[in-house]
What we know:
Elements: H1 14-23, H2 48-53, H3 106-130, H4 138-162, H5 164-169, H6 173-203, H7 212-220, H8 225-237, H9 241-268, H10 276-303, H11 310-335, H12 351-368, H13 379-387
Amino acid sequence: MSATVAKPHGLTDPERAAKILAAIPDHDLDTQRKMNYFLKPRGKRLSEYEILTVYSQPTPDWIAGGLDWGDWTQKFHGGRPSWGNELTELKSSDWHHHRDPGRRWHGPYVKDKSEDWRYTTRLLESFSADGGIRTLDTFWRDEILDKYYGALLYNEYALFNAHSSVLRDCLSDTIRLTAGFAALDKVDNAQMIQLQRSFIAKLVPGLDDSTHAPKQTWLTDPVYAGARSLVQEVWQGIQDFNEILWVVHNVYDPLFGNFARREFFQRIAPHFGDSLTPFFTAQAQTYFQVTRTAISDLFFESLANDPQFGDFNRTYLRAWTGKWLDGTIAALKDFVGLYAKIPPIAGVTDKAAVTEAVSRVISDWVSDYADKIDYKVNQQNLVAAVVSGLK
């Protein structure tokens, strides 16, 4: 039996080693020396937010800007794939172009919320120790805060739930992160409203902090009829993830949400000895502004100004605005009926003051949103339509 002699490998065969060395080019095989070289930074260099966010989840290469990094499910029940062009009418030359100017990812978000809770705890402890509850008007507490401010939590909770399909359907990691934190801020607003109600109930023996009364107000009271109808349709009736984000954060919340939180509850509460509501609504408004900068980058910087599809996308954004603006104005018209349920306050609840408050909100909306997509509106007509709801 003859023995089998193994052939020498390249590293141990001088002749093969010489051939390999001769075949090596005299220049670097790879000149790329940067981590995540495939990411295009928004600034001069990649931020921590970009490194930890962009392409952190599977993205098929047929999605504009995708890298074909696998998938997370083959098919949904019924045959729908995990990704699909039918998920939105808008188009992009790079769905990964969006960046959150606030650079929010999990770590900073949790840190910010922890800080919010710490100073909220300190304020509530101080309020309790100082007996601040003694200055709170009982009518405002029992009729307005308990029922109508309490009902606002259902508005915020519905908007939170409207984001559920967005997080599944959106076409990039940065959009998913922006939408996710916007949704969490909404449910945080709802929880803060209930936290305030429960805190007051602990300070007032016998006061009920059950959600039964505010729920009935939300479901049956004409003040919230328009709002309830619109958010139900947004939650259940829209399939396009960009349309959901657009109507919630660029039409409805900047108009109805801003007015309810800022112009009604935050402004009127101090006149009834209420220092708690302005504190909580100020937090909600902070979340609103943080989300506004992120959503504005998505729609105005990335989609409306897309080098290839910008004009096409602007057409859709204007159409969506027109589709949902009337319902939002109707919701505001119903809501201003709440002024008739509180005692008159000169310069605050009279028609001139309410008209001025409505004008502020609509003017802000036009400059911050409508003008950026060339959507033309008659501000005076919108204001008049809302104020016509005054009783």
